[in-house]
Amino acid sequence: MKVINLGEHSSILNSIAAQLRDSEIQKDRAKFRNNLTRIGSIFGYEISKALSHSEISVKTPLGEARLDVPTDRIVVATILRAGLPLHQGVLSCFDNADSAFVAASRAYGKDQDIEVFSSYCAVQPLEGKTLILADTMLATGSSLLDAIRFLKEKGGEPAGLHLVCPFASAKAVENLQNNLSGEVTLWVASIDPELNFKYYIVPGLGDAGDLCFGEKI
């Protein structure tokens, strides 16, 4: 698995990431969602550079222009619910992409062990297509791995897999590296060093789903 950390380079992405982390700015729920959408579009743009391209000809009012454009068939997937604004940002970059959705939840067992449950999957056939799976937080990696298995079980094996996880923990990245093979690229904005006892990323940004849509009961 290849890991690309866009946050290692100075760009506007880091300014958006700073706003997403800021506990005061987070109080504006609409701005938080909008920032996730903005950061998703940046990742979509960067991923587009890594796709297959071919040259096309376009007639203009004054002549003809030739351009290289991506040719991959794209499916953009996300894990409900925190990934929805991020998914929208990635999707905005790919006009003809399909969308897939997985519902996953985690439960705490003895000694705070985590069990992940995937209960819903809506996906198109994935064979020969490039799958982009977007989820805001990558804490342990268990939910993402479960979602990948669920999507492949229902849709088949994609030709390529891009994982968009702006905020990741070092433990989760290691988990993915140990469990994924083939043409897989993980795109992040930061890799944070720690998880707390509830498996939240530290410093992270908190619960992205609650910050987007309100606290659950």
In oligomeric terms, what are we looking at? single chain
Category from helices, strands and their pairing: alpha/beta
Low-confidence stretches: none
Give the termini separation: 37 Å
Gross geometry:
globular
Residues in helices, as a percent range = 25-40%
The helix/strand order is: EHHEEEHEEEEHEEHEEEEH
**Numbering strands along the chain, what is their spatial order in the largest sheet?**
1-11-9-7-4-5-6
The chain-level mean pLDDT equals 93
- Per DSSP E runs of 2 or more residues, the count of β-strands stands at 14
Number of helices: 6
The radius of gyration computed from the alpha-carbon positions, rounded to a whole number of angstroms, is 18 Å
Q: Note the beta-strand portion.
A: 25-35%
Largest sheet: 7 strands, mixed
Key words describing this protein structure:
three-stranded parallel sheet, seven-stranded mixed sheet, globular, about 220 residues, 6 helices, about 30% helix, alpha/beta, about 35% strand
Question: Could you please describe the fold and organization of this structure?
Answer:
With 217 residues, the chain is an alpha/beta fold. It is 31% helix and 34% strand. It has six helices and 14 strands. A seven-stranded mixed sheet has the order 1-11-9-7-4-5-6, sandwiched between helices. The chain has a three-stranded parallel sheet with strand order 8-10-12. Strand 5 and strand 6 (114-122) form a beta hairpin. Helix 1 (12-21) runs antiparallel to helix 2 (29-48) and helix 2 (29-48) crosses helix 3 (84-91).
